User: What shape does this take?
Amino acid sequence: MKTVKILSACLFLVFWTSCTQESKTKGDPTIEQKVEALLSQMTLEEKVGQMNQISPSSDLTEVAELIKKGEVGSVLNLVDPKAINALQQVAMEETRLKIPLIVGRDVIHGFKTIFPIPLGQAASFNPELVEEGAHIAAIEASSQGVHWTFAPMIDIARDARWGRIAESLGEDTYLTSTLGAAMVRGFQGKDLSDPTSIAACPKHFVGYGAAESGKDYNSTFIPERTLRNVYLPSFKAAVDAGAATFMTSFNDNDGVPSTGNQFILKEVLRKEWNFNGFVVSDWASVTEMIAHGFAKDGKEAAMKAINAGVDMEMVSYSYVTYVKELLDEKKITMQTIDNAVRNILRIKMRLGLFENPYVDVDAPSVLYTAEHLQKAKEAAIESAILLKNDNGTLPLNETIRTIAVVGPLADAPHDQLGTWIFDGDKNYTQTPLKALQKEYGDKVRILYAPGLAYSRDVKTDGIAAAVQAARNADVVLAFVGEESILSGEAHSLADLNLQGAQSELIAAVAKTGKPVVTIVMAGRPLTIGRDADVSQAVLFNFHPGTMGGPAIADLLFGKAVPSGKLPVTFPKMVGQLPIYYSHNNTGRPYQGNETMLADIPLEAGQTSLGNTSFHLDAGAYPLYPFGYGLSYTTFSYANLNLSSDKLKATDTLTVSADITNTGKYDGTEIVQLYVQDCFGSVTRPVKELKDFTRIFLKSGETKTVTFTLPIQKLAYYNIDMDYVVEAGDFNLWVSQDSQKGLKASFVVE
Ligand code: GLC
Assistant: This one.
């Protein structure tokens, strides 16, 4: 297999990139001079103080004392602007060198105005909208004194059992890279020193989403090639987008906790990517290396983290405690300490904190503005995925006179917001029930009978009232899903069926014979096959945030048309996990006609069932594939055209196809481009998303969609761990999801 190595082009590219990176990441010389001038004045205690982040207790006087002593460089989880200014004043007026604090907070999908959880935003496949959402979050958070968010979370997540899939941008490397970079741009704005900009912190570096069995904090076993081809690219894209900080992940990968992993933090992040922001540990992840069995005590944990390149320690205080001893014992060097402090000071200076350390507590509020709420509604609309719509049940039309609203998520202002809501206020949540009553209550009669009190509720005595409401209605809207506490950090599940008696509720109202529209709000894919089977329509919303109600109401009544596509594969059964579209083919790929469990004849012969890769009780296909999502209209794909079918690795392929809106509603289609490298020096995924675009088409309209694909985008880390495009045969699809599409082939020579 001849490997095409474009040596001259690569060398130029590396040189050019490093120069660009150097100028971009080294920042401007003025800042570097200021950093050096300040660093040269600092004592060891002051240096280590910058490397220490604390989460203040309610007694701020105690924190003020630590700041005064120069022991604190950053605080997190303080969002009272007056308290922040008070502590900042201590740093700026009562310490020797007057180095401002940097204030961090988890602003994951909104600060006060809550957007759909990141997994929901990913379903929009809309980088511009995602960037706007992050910018609104930055405007709101910075107005309260926050300088730095611990986001975007860009772990690749392929296991719905993992609660933190909610915070991710899904299973795909390209989608996560694209949207993660958009979030970095949104948070940081054009200039980090702009008062409405906050520093981003791509996390969790790296591989956390591959936690074994989807159990949070569990070990991962990702070999270097998979790290480089699947898990690292989204973080590289974040560096290229100018991310100011990074956070290490809790997991040990192949036995090495990320917080002590020199390969990812020094070799990859610093040497290969030229990153020169600062790296913060995750919450106590430095001293958790003791529990990992990677350090025998806090002192060794501090040594391993510092030597790996973790510049700032979140809350576990081992740096302040042990750095002097470690220096005296020559287990760490002053150069390492100085580099860590340089990285921290550089970001504080780029943020403009030395010139503007305080937040203006008298500025007019920018929280929950009409513009922010409207953008959050737009995001919730574009994040909704229509999974089923038999007989055009949706949108609800004028024949509908009475609707029955049932289910525990119809009016759940807290749970609708989803996970990672430190600052969102449920009193601002507009729920589906309230939105339906407000916007459509004058057009239709609304009967409300939740049936269950909350998603885990197993008390079924309320179901009778829901059934009665269904009997008296023309259509049933069943709002089900997950309480927010069932998703997010440390909330992994081994069963993905709807919790409690929700499926029973749906079955009971379906038995009335009235059409049922099941609307799900959850933090992860759920195994909702049996619920979908008895529903005429299914609208899935990954916890849609503050404006989820008005968004869903407009979608149900056709004021908006669904366009969302799944950013993650939905399994039929939890036993299929991990399941994702860009899997390898294996030597015995599923043929799709294997004998399934129910059809196995008695005393079947040992090899009679087809020796291929599938589950006897689930097959090999998911319930719904990555990239899938319906509209109220339909689209046809035709006239796939390639600019050439023989290309060199330095060429660019132009791909076009005609997309027609063949239905009666105007709508938006997310057209996807997938490529398969048919064979390589190592096995390759059956396909990978390489581009996508959103197009709006009026009913009957046709547009030609054109993708420009540099063949360099097909490069990957091969058998020799070289990042190259290997010559060979390729397939591509222009498609509406990862399973279908117009197919063509080409060769790279
Ligand atoms: C948490 C999370 C991390 C978060 C940090 C600060 O444990 O793992 O994502 O940013 O602590 O809250």
